[in-house]
């Protein structure tokens, strides 16, 4: 998992908004196997190791259900350490009657897709060995074909079963709905320093650092000109990018200002938002 440590720039934390915190906590604890690191009446920081958090929940004041056809979260993606972890959670989902939205082979990875009780999209995946990824110049080949579930389950280890989200899990990437792609590419490329590593038709961009298949993806599947959702609606609150060092962060801040992007300092972090209103925190 060297793509989620220095010198890469990667998604270190995602904060999502939910309508009913207790209902969501039940799902994230009992079904996805997270622990709770910290909790208030309206927020919860989730953990796999009892020390750190890469996912948190917030119940906004006067919260409203997730709004359709807007910008914001398509899904956040949890990267598991081993293929057998993915196989184990498939069995766990089956035993608990959890319905998958999809199960797909992307050539670079194998992935399961589902929604939480609030409609927030979740991907749970495992990477194939990077040596097997096929690069054509600066772009990596990615497919979307049905996952060979029988082959995946062949990786099950006798005596091993799902015992909760593994300590080695990380936030692998985030995929966002945006309002358009031209200014969005400039923001994530010239502003944040990501490289476009795959262009899906004229509908989506996959971006990364250090030749990962993607740390961030953006799409216009909710329509060009899709509006920003209300602040109190279920969905994405923000995500945090981890930069290698303070010098790199200050360079990103300079780059964002040069392209006219919003950026400000807030609680020892720099905060920006992309042209579609997706809120991003810049940390080191």
TrEMBL record:
Entry keyword annotation includes Metal-binding: yes
EC number: 1.13.11.2
Example GO molecular function: catechol 2,3-dioxygenase activity
All copies of domain VOC, residue ranges: 10-127, 170-284
A Pfam family of this chain: Glyoxalase
Highest rank taxon of the organism: Bacteria
Keywords: Metal-binding, Oxidoreductase
Keyword Metal-binding: yes
Protein name: Catechol 2,3-dioxygenase
Organism of origin: Ammoniphilus resinae
Native organism taxonomy: Bacteria, Bacillati, Bacillota, Bacilli, Bacillales
